[in-house]
TrEMBL record:
It is an enzyme of class 2 (transferase). The keyword Acyltransferase applies. This is Phosphinothricin N-acetyltransferase. It comes from Klebsiella pneumoniae 30684/NJST258_2. SUPFAM superfamilies: Acyl-CoA N-acyltransferases (Nat). InterPro entries: Acyl_CoA_acyltransferase, GNAT_dom.
Length: 237
């Protein structure tokens, strides 16, 4: 069989991309949208609204960053920041962003349990938050905490996560707790989170394979752990 000669028009046709690459490109394009959802009584917040006011080239100095306890009124900004991570990120396994009221309840529950919920402010705007919860509800787990950290999209690599985690560990070591866990969604593909946790003494304790399904693919979770205070060297009081 003789193949017909190809026509040479002088114009190079673009090569077809593999299906997986096309899907990834579409996902990136989709993530560029400024997502806006109704969070509370008709109020709309964009998960990327702060990035426009905070250009990537702007340096973040330690003196500009404030870490403090979260307040009930912070629920609006925290919920808005979290939208991007739910709709675009793979670290959070939530798929529907919580409302402002739901976020306010979460903050209050953490504080009612005597645990810290912290926010990072840069020039008066919340650019990150973190908190600790009990790892499991059964009594024998009562000395083990799980932490979560989220930083504003486009503000990574400026020391916000490190400042939050450092303060969170210090606050938790004031209590009776002895172990802290980080359950990192899609952990092996989350280099930033891995680096921050290793910096503060976390080591990989295990991996759960394909326990999450998000954005059209199976996602692993990585479990990292570090001791708080005396850890397991002494018995709790």
């Amino acid at each position: 069989m003789v193949k017909p000669a190809s026509r040479n028009t002088g114009v190079k046709r673009p090569r077809r991309q593999p299906l997986r690459r096309i899907r990834n490109n579409r996902r990136q394009d989709y993530s560029a949208w400024r997502f806006c959802i109704t969070l509370h009584a008709g109020e709309c917040f964009s998960g990327r609204f702060r990035s426009a006011a905070m250009p990537a080239e702007a340096p973040l100095l330690d003196s500009d960053l404030e870490i403090r306890e979260a307040l009930p009124d912070d629920a609006h900004a925290i919920a808005a920041l979290y939208v991007w991570h739910v709709l675009n990120g793979r670290a959070s396994f939530e798929e529907i962003p919580p409302t402002v009221d739901e976020m306010r309840k979460r903050i209050q529950t953490v504080r009612d349990n005597g645990l810290p919920w912290l926010v990072a402010l840069w020039r008066g705007a919340i650019v990150g938050y973190c908190y600790a919860t009990f790892y499991r509800p059964r009594p024998a787990y009562r000395y083990t905490l799980e932490e979560s950290i989220y930083v504003e999209s486009g503000m990574g690599g400026r020391g916000i996560g490190s400042a939050l985690l450092s303060r969170l560990i210090a606050e938790c070591e004031k209590g009776p707790w002895r172990q802290m866990l980080a359950i990192i969604g899609d952990g092996h593909n989350n280099a930033g989170s891995l680096a921050i946790h290793k910096k503060f003494g976390f080591t990989v304790a295990g991996q759960l394979r394909s326990v999450g399904y998000k954005m059209g693919d199976w996602r692993d979770t990585l479990i990292m752990q570090r001791a708080l205070g005396d850890g397991d060297w002494t018995l709790p009081e």
